[in-house]
Amino acid sequence: MKNIIKNMSKIIISIIILLAFKNSNSTPINTYIDNVNPPMNAVSVNRNSDVTVVFTQPMNAATMNTPNIKVFGYLRGLLDVTVSYEQATKTLTINPNQEMKIGEEISVTLTDNITTMGGQSITPFVYKFRVQVLGGNGMFIRASGISGFQNAYLKSGDIDGDNDIDLVVNNKIYKNEGQAVFSFSNELSMTGIPELADFDSDGDLDILIQNGNNVFFYQNNGLGNFAQTYSFSGGVDNYGDLNGDGFLDLVYFMTVADVGILRNNNGIIEVDTSFHFDGNINYNDRILIDDFNNDGSLDPIAIQGNIVDIVGIYHLRRNYIELKNNGYGNFISNLILTNQTISTQIIYSYYGSQSFDFNNDNYIDIISPDKKYENNHNNTYTGETFFSFSLSLISDFTGQSSIDILSTVDQLPLYSNINNGLGNFNQIIGNTGQFLGGTTADFDNDGDMDIASVDLNLQEVSILINTDIPSPVELSSFNTTVSTNNITLNWTTSSEKNNSGFDVERSESNGWIKLGFVEGNGNSNSQQSYSYTDRNLNTGKYKYRLKQTDFNGNFEYYELSGEVIIGVPVKSGLAQNYPNPFNPKTIINYELGITNYVSLKVYDALGSEVMTLVNENKQAGYYKATFDGSNLPSGMYFYRLSVDGNVVDTKRMALVK
What we know:
The protein has about 650 residues and is mainly beta. It is about 5% helix and about 55% strand.
């Protein structure tokens, strides 16, 4: 009877432990998708990153293909990617075949043509992130200008596929010659409000021109030459893949009280549905499109309200209405913020709201003139007083992995509002010109975000270049060598000033991690060489960067170009443990030349088994196991690696307490 009770107690304890382990894992995004990397709404993703999607159940590998998986770069269009699926880990890997653009917003779509092994279609899945910016200080100087514009609508993107970011100004196209020098290319037949995106999903950016209540579609031939192919009724307020079919849809204000949805059916945009909002509405701001609740579908939020003039003081009551998406582009209207009241004398300045993750928690927040709203992760928001603005542009303007805001009030100085990473902004003057409207991109290809904006004083589109604090270190080379599963980073400097040293960082699923620090040479006018070895790595792809820091705390990143690959071992083998002797833990490295059943066991000096470290099927590659001898006496122990029942090697180690 005592044995039965004892065994039952062990079973109960085991169940409790298993439940605790299960509950410690993160909640899956939805029924089919467990997690993604880069994380949802990440704001600083390595431009060479793969995208990985881990599913909750085994999937049909035959449905993992590029017709069912779309990756859009908002500055260049549909990206060419290679996809692969690993059934053992239920992991889809999407590898872009070219670098993503600095500061670019990326949208990933998995369509419902992807199925489980049981033949069930997934719910369409769409998520976004932003590409890392490498520098800048939020101070801007005029580099050039396009004359003859007192007012203009601006859009930016790589129109001709040459990796330089071009401009659309109203209906005129200006191509970038490579260093933020623009030349006129051609003029579209219709004038109006432009929008720039890959609306036919063919890998280049098309142009929509809204003229009144009509929108004209100009199709790109891939070289930046456009032909007007058709038109439709509607507008171009904002866009995104709303139904997860791999085509970008549109949302627009039909009136201040009505929002229209335009569905993109294989490159043909058509009227779909509309929503009317009751009340005394005479004001609207913007339509925001983001995944506000991290469920894998894009939700529009319309901002509108009522303005009342009481003795020269305007009272604005704003409402924020979310069109909650079920993943298939079917929406339920939900009033998430109501009667957000502002009193002011210059009501025409109260436009330009934005949605982005301002506190780096991977949830989308909202800013509006005089108010910012932090996402509480439960479909509610906490409001806080904010600064006023009439123009806003968002990006990481300082290269510090947080989204900053450029703003103006009444077209007066351009303010750079620098984010400290927690959603608190320090306001400085970025440029003293008088600006109206704009767009942001890395126009001069130096790794930071510049802007193009209409300067009312100069009556031109001014190209404003983000300036950098001069680097105290000139890096002349940065490369790697690979020896089995060790990667050595080698770099040289041609000059150094006030150089404290270098943090060596490696990209992991949860961001960059620091591996170690290499001391610098302070001040030097001669070549200095450095190296760092990252040891005992598993088979896979690795990305590295250096964080160079001076003695005042200023820093700059230097990213290694491309990925470093650790391949599969030629044969299976067992390494000597380290440290040895040890107390109480030691690391055992081993390698597998083929995928097979593996066991790694530890024996005492009498040959009795004391612990099993590994006993399962494993893929070919490099591995490590930790042996903990806390509950064992001092002495000599042996550890043995077997593959498919055959002994590969046996080694000994000493536990000394």
